[in-house]
Design brief:
The chain contains five helices and five strands; from the N terminus they run H-H-H-H-H-E-E-E-E-E. It is elongated, with a radius of gyration of 31 Å. The longest helix is centred in the middle third of the chain and has 47 residues, at 70-116. Helices cover 46% and strands 20% of the residues. Strand 2 (138-144) and strand 3 (149-161) form a beta hairpin. It has two domains: 1-30; 70-189, no CATH class.
Length: 200
């Protein structure tokens, strides 16, 4: 009879509260006979014990996390954005020369800029900007998150040279000269035919 009463109370509470409130387990321990030891064999924990356990495990996990290296934080996203800008038409044609000649120079510029700005240990940096399409120059920007300002802007310009054809001129601008001076990273030859648009 007691089991039917418990089931009825559970159903009544569920119906009256639309399932929002579940009956407390203390009700069932008070309804159990004193000689029933099913509940007493289980270890008891309080809310405070559970909270401290969670906080400790989160603290321990965070203390073992390693900060991102400059390769993970900046170099890899920069390379991915460059490939995104090249698209499927330009990328396969210039990728090898870009990887061998231009990319190492970009990484050196980023490394020097990060070091002069205080390093990854003291500052937060990010690669921002979706690369522009059509024939626009923007590839990506390296930004100081703490100061919310660009430090370097990497661009690629399509140049037509008489008798030679089309070249891609990779360059960057820095905050030191208010982004007005072109610092060249190198050129990659396309062909004498008009190149496709970026992101295509």
């Amino acid at each position: 009879m007691k089991k039917h009463l418990q089931n009825f109370i559970i159903a009544l509470v569920a119906v009256l509260t639309l399932g929002v409130i579940s009956p407390s387990h203390e009700i069932w321990t008070n309804l159990q006979p004193k000689d029933d030891t099913r509940e007493t064999d289980l270890p008891t924990t309080s809310k405070h014990d559970l909270q401290f356990g969670l906080e400790d495990s989160i603290f321990e996990r965070e203390s073992f996390e390693q900060p991102l290296s400059i390769e993970e934080a900046l170099f890899q996203p920069a390379k991915e954005l460059a490939y995104m800008k090249f698209g499927s038409k330009i990328g396969p044609v210039i990728q090898n020369e870009f990887d061998d000649v231009i990319l190492p120079k970009m990484e050196e510029v980023i490394r020097n800029t990060v070091a002069s700005a205080g390093g990854l240990e003291n500052k937060a940096f990010s690669i921002t900007e979706y690369p522009s399409g059509d024939y626009a120059e923007r590839m990506f920007h390296v930004t100081d998150i703490d100061d919310a300002k660009d430090l370097i802007r990497f661009h690629v310009r399509t140049e037509k040279r008489p008798l030679d054809g089309y070249f891609y001129n990779f360059h960057y601008h820095t905050v030191e000269d208010s982004f007005t001076v072109h610092h060249s990273l190198g050129d990659i030859y396309w062909s004498k035919n008009t190149p496709p648009k970026w992101l295509s």
